[in-house]
Amino acid sequence: MKVLIAEDNQVWRKLLAEHLQRFGFDYIEAADGQAAWDILCQADAPRLVLLDWQMPELDGIEVCRRIKQDENRGFTYVILLTSRDAKEDMVSGLDAGADDYLTKPVDAAVLRSRLRAARRIIEAVPPKEWTKPQIPGYEVTRLIGKGAFATVWEAHRDGDPQPLALKVLRVDLATEDVFGRFAREIEVMKRLDHPHIAHIYDSRIDHRLGYYAMDLIQGDTLDRFVKKHKPSGMEIIQMVADVCDGLQHAHQQGVIHRDLKPSNIMVSEDQNAKLVDFGLSKTMFWPPSSEDSAETLDGAVIGSPLFMAPEQARGENERLDERSDVYSVGVVLYMMLLRRHPQKLVSKERWETIKQIAEGQVQPPTSLNPKFSRTLEAIIMKALDEDPEKRYQSAGEMAAALRAFVARRTQNVR
C-alpha cells in the first residue's frame, strides 16, 4: 500500500520515509500542502495520507477538508501530524474529517500500529464512496462529505420535498469518545432555535444507528462566499451582525461557541448567514450531567488559533464566556474587510501563533488602510480589546453597533 507523506520539514519527512520503508509500505513525498493536493488529484492517488498540520501553500487542515469533501474521491484515510500534544488539535482535526492523529516526534511503534490499523480499515472500506445509509423516514440522495466515523448526505424526509443535510455516524467504527461527542453536539443543537443558526430537525443515537438531520444550506462558507461573490463592505457587516444575532441566542441558552471562524459560518446566495458546528461549544448554566463537548483541564487551548480570544489562547478555559465569542467575531469581521489578521503574525508555527495571540496586540485597521472608517474601526477595536471587560458585553450589543453604523452610512449616501 502506498502512503503520501505530506511534511514540509525535510528531517521529519526523511524519518517518516525510513519508518514506512521498514514497515513495508511504499510512499510518495510532498514538501507542502499544494504539492500534496496535486498528488491526491491524480488517478492513482494514495488512499493513506500522513498529513502535517502546518505547511506552506495549504495547511494540513485545508487539505484534509478538500479530501473529505470531494464527492468523486474514494475513501482516503488521513492521519494528521502536529508538533504538540493538545486535545484541541485532535478535535479540530476530527472536525475537518481526519481519521487519526499523531504528535511529533512520532514513536515508531505507535506509527506502525496506526498504519496497520489504517490499512485494515482501508481494505474493509470500498475504494469508491460510502454506501448510502438506510435511515427510516428519509430518502438519501447524494454524498456531501465523508470521514472515517461519519458521513454527510443530502436527503429528503418522506413526503417533504425540502432537502436536508443528514449527518450519519458510522457506529461500527466510532469510538466511545466519538459517540460521546456526537451525542453532545446533538444535545447542544437541539436547544438552539434561531434563523441564523443551522436548525436540527431530527436525531437518533444508539448502538445501531446515529444521525441528525439539519438545515441544508445551499451556499458557501463565509470566506468562500466573500472570495466568490465579492460583497460590499456594508453587506459583509450586515452578515456579521446576523451572526451576532445567532450568537446572542446561543449565549442566552447558555452555549458558548468557542470556535467562531469563517468556515463555521454558512452563507446562502441571498446572503443569509447561519452558524454551524457547535462541536467545541462550552455550556455555562446547564445541569452538571451535561459535560462539555470538548472536556479540558484549565490550560489546554480550545478553538482555532487565528480566531481565538487572548484568554482562550492562554488556556484560561474557566474565563471563557460570551465575550470570548465576541472577540472571535471581531477577528472574522476584520479579516473579511481587510484580508489580513488583526495581529502581525510572525510565525506559521501553531504554538508561536497561539503565544502571539495570547498577548493581544492588535493592529488598528487604519494602520493598514488610512481611509478605513474611524467609526467602524472603533467598533472592531472594542470587540478586539484584550480585556473582556472593555469589549462589547454581549453579541447583541455588537450587532446593534454594527447596524447603527450601516444605517448612518446608508443615510449619508442618500
Automatic annotation (TrEMBL):
Top-level taxon of the source organism: Bacteria
Annotated positions of the 4-aspartylphosphate modification: 52
Domain Response regulatory: residue ranges: 2-119
PROSITE patterns for this protein: PROTEIN_KINASE_ATP, PROTEIN_KINASE_DOM, PROTEIN_KINASE_ST, RESPONSE_REGULATORY
Assigned EC number: 2.7.11.1
InterPro entries (alphabetical): CheY-like_superfamily, Kinase-like_dom_sf, Prot_kinase_dom, Protein_kinase_ATP_BS, Ser/Thr_kinase_AS, Sig_transdc_resp-reg_receiver
Positions annotated to bind ATP: 167
One protein family per Pfam: Pkinase
Annotated ranges, domain Protein kinase: 138-406
One GO MF term: protein serine/threonine kinase activity
GO biological process: phosphorelay signal transduction system
Coiled-coil blocks: none
Keyword hit for Acetylation: no
UniProt KW keywords: ATP-binding, Kinase, Nucleotide-binding, Phosphoprotein, Transferase
Catalytic class of the enzyme: transferase
Name listed for the protein in its UniProt record: Serine/threonine-protein kinase PknB
